[in-house]
Amino acid sequence: MRPSGRQLDQMRSISIETGVMRHAEGSCLIKMGDTHVLCSATIEDKAPSFLKNTGLGWVTAEYGMLPRATNSRTRREAAVGKQGGRTQEIQRLIGRSLRAGVDRSALGERQIVVDCDVLQADGGTRCASITGGWVALRLAINRLLKAGTITSDPIIDHVAAVSCGVYAGQPLLDLDYPEDSVAGTDGNFVMTGRGRLIEVQMSAEGASFSREEMLQLLDLAEIGSGLLVSAQKAAVE
């Protein structure tokens, strides 16, 4: 029995509210159970210097957690004076994942920055950030298309992410914090709307895992990704 009472292959409730920030070109508030992430996309008319005269655009991301997103207060990284290694790793993952769903030549020499701010954390914040970040990115690109700034849609496919793991010897979909904190195996799966893999992060937190267990988690991830893509489609239509 899962602590939440969910079935092994059951996602937490999914909610994506769009247009939650007045000034951002694209924004949404994604809720996956008690994990809530505010995502916004900002269009910059200039690409990074390393892409000058290449005709290619860029999508990047920044990630952060509010001090009381967790049970105890975490100091703002700005107050500490530097980003932690976890923050850097997660925002690079978000950026890589979103770029995989974009035709950068169709985007042109401009940059879109996706900001993901965790308001409340209960496991799976990086997955929620990727899923909600795609929605914010989609809405920002819709503005470029509507304005005629670009003529070809650079979005190749949906991008969504979900966590899976082995808890109490059972493979589970969409881990919340009580499960994630003690899971024997923990994995994050980033997938496209067509079911193709962008990135897989898996590690044995306790005992090692078998190939069969890895495939069981992949099967669960495909279920979860499909549900998340459906939520994305409903949010942007």
Automatic annotation (TrEMBL):
Its EC number is 2.7.7.56. It is an enzyme of class 2 (transferase). It comes from the Bacteria. Coiled coil: none annotated. The keyword Transferase applies. Residues 10-140, 159-222 form the Exoribonuclease phosphorolytic domain. InterPro entries: ExoRNase_PH_dom1, ExoRNase_PH_dom2, ExoRNase_PH_dom2_sf, PNPase/RNase_PH_dom_sf, Ribosomal_Su5_D2-typ_SF, RNase_PH, RNase_PH_bac-type, RNase_PH_CS. Keywords: Nucleotidyltransferase, RNA-binding, rRNA processing, Transferase, tRNA processing, tRNA-binding. GO terms for biological process: rRNA 3'-end processing; rRNA catabolic process; tRNA processing. It catalyses: tRNA(n+1) + phosphate = tRNA(n) + a ribonucleoside 5'-diphosphate. Pfam families: RNase_PH, RNase_PH_C. Phosphate binds at residues 86, 124-126. CDD domains: RNase_PH_bact. GO terms for molecular function: 3'-5'-RNA exonuclease activity; tRNA binding; tRNA nucleotidyltransferase activity. Belongs to the RNase PH family. Homohexameric ring arranged as a trimer of dimers. Phosphorolytic 3'-5' exoribonuclease that plays an important role in tRNA 3'-end maturation. Removes nucleotide residues following the 3'-CCA terminus of tRNAs; can also add nucleotides to the ends of RNA molecules by using nucleoside diphosphates as substrates, but this may not be physiologically important. Probably plays a role in initiation of 16S rRNA degradation (leading to ribosome degradation) during starvation. This is Ribonuclease PH. It comes from Pseudotabrizicola alkalilacus.
